[in-house]
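Support request from a user on the community tier.

User writes: "When I paste my structure tokens into the form, the page sometimes reloads and wipes my input. The last time it worked, I copied everything first. Here is what I submitted, just in case something in the input itself triggers the reload:"
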């Protein structure tokens, strides 16, 4: 089994200085352009993907839709590909406002401490192990997986 991981394009949380994580933000125009460029590169590579598995978060869904307009293969939402939720309760919050309204959570994040509602590293490892087992059980030999940066880091 071969899995090629693709991070979604730039999303609005990047521009709005918000905590992303499991908050659901769309792509920016630049992110859409990035997905289109990637789609062309994937097509030129002649890689024979059988399926695109994608995170159900909007930025990954949009990236998948743009890529699939070019490579045209079956797609399937796959919850195991969601972003690592390191922000916990801060997901979606504007960072400066969060520092004022939730200083204890913001400080915990800044200090690399546990943030309430977040996914600890050991939890992420368990999810990745389960993800790989579930992908293998699907029986595909060559998968394109559209996901997020923190899942890949």
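"...and here is what came back when it finally went through:"
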């Amino acid at each position: 089994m071969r899995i090629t991981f693709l991070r979604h394009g730039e999303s609005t949380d990047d521009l709005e200085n918000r905590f992303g994580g499991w908050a659901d933000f769309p792509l920016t125009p630049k992110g859409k352009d990035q997905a289109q460029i990637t789609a062309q590169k994937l097509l030129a590579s002649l890689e024979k993907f059988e399926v695109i598995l994608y995170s159900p978060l909007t930025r990954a869904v949009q990236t998948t839709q743009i890529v699939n307009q070019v490579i045209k293969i079956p797609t399937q939402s796959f919850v195991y590909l969601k972003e690592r939720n390191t922000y916990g309760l801060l997901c979606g919050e504007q960072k400066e406002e969060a520092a004022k309204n939730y200083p204890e959570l913001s400080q915990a994040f800044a200090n690399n401490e546990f943030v309430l509602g977040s996914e600890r590293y050991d939890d992420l490892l368990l999810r990745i192990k389960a993800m790989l087992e579930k992908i293998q059980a699907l029986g595909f030999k060559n998968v394109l997986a559209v996901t997020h940066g923190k899942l890949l880091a």
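Agent notes: The reload is a front-end session timeout and is unrelated to the input. The radius of gyration is 16 Å. The CA atoms of residues 69 and 122 lie 36 Å apart. Escalated to web team.
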